[in-house]
Each structure stands twice: as structure tokens, then as C-alpha cells.
Amino acid sequence: MKKLRDLLRELRRKVTIVFIHHGRIKPIKFNFSVLFLLVVFAGWTGMTLWAGFISGKHIDYLAVKADNKIMKVRMLFFADQIKKSTEMLAQVKQNDDHIRSLLAMDSKRIIIENGLGSGGPTPVESSALSMLLSGKIDGIDYQEISRQTFELLEEYKASMKSYSEVINHISKQREMFRYTPSIWPCKGIISSSYGIRFHPIFRTRFFHPAIDIANKKNTPILATADGVVAFSGWLRGYGNVITIEHGKKYRTVYAHLAKSLVKKGEFVTKGQEIAKMGNTGRSTGPHVHYELHLNKRPINPMKYLGSYLD
User: Fold this and answer.
1) Which CATH number belongs to the domain containing residue 273 in this structure?
2) In Å, what is the CA distance from 148 to each residue of 75, 93, 139, 153?
3) pLDDT tens digits along 104-149
4) What single DSSP character describes residue 226?
5) Residue whose C-alpha is closest to residue 253's, from 293, 291, 210
6) I want to staple 275 with a disulfide (CB 3.0 to 4.6 A). Which of 26, 31, 180, 221 is the partner?
7) d(CA 309, CA 109)
8) Are strands 189-192 and 205-208 parallel, antiparallel or unpaired?
9) Residue 32 in 3-state DSSP?
């Protein structure tokens, strides 16, 4: 009890606080008990701690709210991107179906010579910004977005597989077109057809393994397919001759030429001018002797002139 009385006595003691102005104003004195100062200090400390706690909670709430808002905007943007991707995928599938229909119709000229058409997605009617301004941001279904994303990925894989199949097929068709003799070697009229004929010089019947196309001297002679020149020179009876190997299947021969424009080992392309029409070798007038070989055997070139793309 004595200690408590002593403590209370000490707390009732006065403490004088003097504010001294370095001028003409008299010093100002304030008398406070120790107990009063302790109460003020404790109150001030409690209020400071409470204000800090409330402020922290409020700041955390605002931060979480802002993060949620940003997350919703991002998810809305993600949903918008999925919609765009879905439309693009639909366009890809449409192009894929169109390509396959063209291939089924054997429209090789459109696909091989002119190439494939290009397209793009239709405009997206709604955007993330318009939905945000209209207050529909809380209507996002994240599970639905996740499901759509998975389905979109699977659709994309299937479309890419289909696309690869189509591209591979078209590549093979293009290679077949480029290396298959399928155009006329020159302008003119057929003066002698493929098969048994009466020789104009020897007056005997024999097998003619080519067609003769007659025109004026120096008429351009064209390569009828891509290939490598296997021979370019003079052969008895044929005069100036060019032989071209077109891959492993086809070979073409151009004879009675006035002038050769390519050399052995040179790569030529379909439609490239390789010679001038002439009257060299055993010939009765300017023309080109055009032979077509399939697997090293002569065949009728007429079956390939213009018919490959029809």
C-alpha cells in the first residue's frame, strides 16, 4: 500500500514546461502533472497506431480492388483475343475446305499456276473497351474462357495437320506440273504425227516416235517442262539436237534446230526458250522434231500437249 501511495504521489507531482522567446515576450509556463502527461502520451500513441492500422487496411483494400480490376480487364482482353482467334480459325477451316474442294475438282490450273487465295478474319463486333465502358466486366466466365482456350488449341492442332496435308499435296502437284512436259514446244502446225508414217525422203513406211511441228525458220523453241539438259549438239539425221531430262520419268528431244541456246548440264524451266527452229539434218523444211519419253520409252506427245491442266 505504501508503494502505491508513493507512486500516486509521484504521479501527482507537477512538471513545468517553459517556452522562452528570445525577444521581448515573456516566457510562457505550463504546469502539468506527470499522470496527465502519461495519459496524453498513451492517448497519442494509441491514436497513431489506430490511424496507421486503419490506413493500412484501407490501402490494402484499394490495392486489392485495383488488382482485381486490372485482372478483370486482362481476362476480358484475353476473352476478346479468343473470339478473334476463333474467327480466324473459322476462316482457316473455310479456306481449307475450299482448297480441298478445288483439289477434288482437279482445278490444277487455279491451284498450281495461280496459287491459293488469301483471306482474313471478320471484324470482331465487341471489344474489351466497349464491354468495360458498358459495365459488363463482371460478366466474365473464367471457366468458360479456359474451356474455349483448350478447345481452340485442339482445333488449331487439327487445322494445322489438315493444312500440312493440303500443302504437301499441292507441293507434289506443283512438282508434277513443273516436271511433266505439258505445253507446246513452239507455235506451228503438225506436219507429221506420231506413229507409222511414210518417210518423205526414203519413201518407205516406218515408225515415227515423235511429232513434227512446222513453222518459219528461227521460230522460238520452248522447254516443255523443268529439267536438266542432257545433250546439246549434232546427231546424224537429226541435225542440231537438244535432249532434256525432266526428273526420273520424262525426257524430251528437240531436233532439226537452227541454233541451240542452252548447254549440257544447264537447268531449264518450263516455257524457257532453248533453241530456234531450223532445217538441219535430214529434213525437207523448217520444223521441230519433238519426242517425249516416259520411263525411257517413246510415247505420243499429243496426249500431253495442253491436256494435263484441262
Assistant:
1) 2.70.70.10
2) 13, 17, 16, 9
3) 554 555 555 555 444 444 333 344 445 544 555 555 555 666 677 7
4) S
5) 291
6) 221
7) 6
8) unpaired
9) strand
Residue 131 lies in a domain: yes
With contact defined as beta carbons under 8 Å apart, do 204 and 250 qualify? no
Nearest to 284 by CA among 242, 241, 237, 221: 237
> In the listed set 123, 147, 179, which residue is the last one of a domain according to the structure?
179
Give residue-wise pLDDT tens across range 45-62: 777 777 666 666 666 666
The angle, 0 to 180 degrees and rounded to 10, between the axes of the packed helices 142-179 and 34-104 is 30
Asked whether residue 15 falls in the same domain as residue 95, the answer is no
Report the sign of the C-alpha dihedral through residues 49, 55, 58, 62, in that order. Answer: negative
Choose among 225, 267, 265: nearest CA to 254.
225
**Residue 149 burial by CB count (10 A; 0-12/13-18/19+): exposed, middle or buried?**
middle
CA distances, 263 to each of 29, 94, 228, 277 (Å): 120, 47, 9, 17
Q: Are residues 35 and 88 in the same domain?
A: no
- State which residues form the domain around 86: 72-179
Reported pTM? 0.54
First to last CA, the chain: 122
For residues 247 and 299, what is the distance between their CA atoms, to the nearest angstrom?
17
Distance CA 227, CA 251 (A): 9
Beta carbons of 185 and 222 less than 8 angstroms apart: yes
> Alpha-carbon Rg of the chain, whole angstroms?
47
Burial 100-120 (b: 16+ CB within 10 A, else e): eebeeeeebeebbeeeeeeee
pLDDT tens per residue, range 235-268 = 998 999 999 999 999 999 999 999 999 999 999 9
pLDDT at position 129, please? 44
